[in-house]
Design brief:
With about 190 residues, the protein is of the alpha+beta class. Helices cover about 25% and strands about 20% of the residues. It has six helices and five strands; from the N terminus they run αβααββαβαβα. The protein has a five-stranded mixed beta sheet with strand order 1-2-3-4-5. α1 packs antiparallel against α5. The protein starts with about 30 loop residues before the first helix and ends in a 21-residue tail after the last helix. The relative contact order is 0.19.
């Protein structure tokens, strides 16, 4: 029987104490995380979303996160082209299981151009999800690393995200620290979850 291996080495411990409040920990780069994944689990490939990913279950993967009814290939292509037209200001990352030919994790980043901080830029991470069948394999870390590395490469002064309290520990292991409070206002009633 083959011994099971963890795809990544243990994450660094989260910062302790109030001396770290309001500071941003050094995030591992996507290359660091990709290298760790590649060295132990070569079947997973981290990359940008492609039109062909519709057939590899992208919409179904998003349904592990929130309400995401099926959409047609034409609707997918149309939205993909809108996002693609934004270039590096909106990037969707995926993790593909190359042995099974399906997507197992995703997340997105969009870049906000600001007037503050000398016309600085901020990256916003959204929609990070790992397929329930592959949770526990640390496939969310390469997604967050890829997105964080992208924001660094386009000159953002910070990257932020909102998450549930249940996911706080995961993001702390990725180098994030809690800062402030999330608020939301929905303009359309949400359909009931199913």
């Amino acid at each position: 029987m083959a011994e099971e291996r963890s795809p990544l080495p243990p994450p660094p411990p989260p910062p302790l104490g109030s001396e770290h409040m309001g500071t941003v920990a050094a995030l591992p780069t996507a290359a660091d995380i990709q290298s760790a994944v590649a060295s132990t689990e070569s079947r997973f490939r981290v990359r940008r979303l492609e039109v062909s990913d519709y057939e590899k279950g992208f919409i179904g993967l998003l349904s592990h996160l929130t309400i995401c009814p099926p959409i047609s290939l034409d609707d997918f292509r149309s939205r993909f082209m809108e996002i693609e037209a934004l270039g590096d200001d909106h990037v969707v990352c995926i993790v593909e299981d190359t042995e099974q030919g399906r997507l197992v994790a995703t997340g997105s980043i969009f870049v906000e151009r600001k007037f503050v901080r000398d016309c600085g830029k901020v990256g916003h991470i959204e929609d990070v999800v790992v397929d329930s069948a592959t949770r526990g394999m640390r496939l969310g870390q390469p997604v967050v690393g890829f997105l964080s590395d992208h924001t660094r490469s386009v000159g953002c002064y910070k990257v932020i995200l909102d998450c549930s309290p249940d996911n706080r520990g995961f993001y702390e292991c990725c180098g994030f620290v809690q800062k402030e409070l999330q608020m939301a206002m929905y303009f359309n009633p949400l359909p009931p979850s199913s």
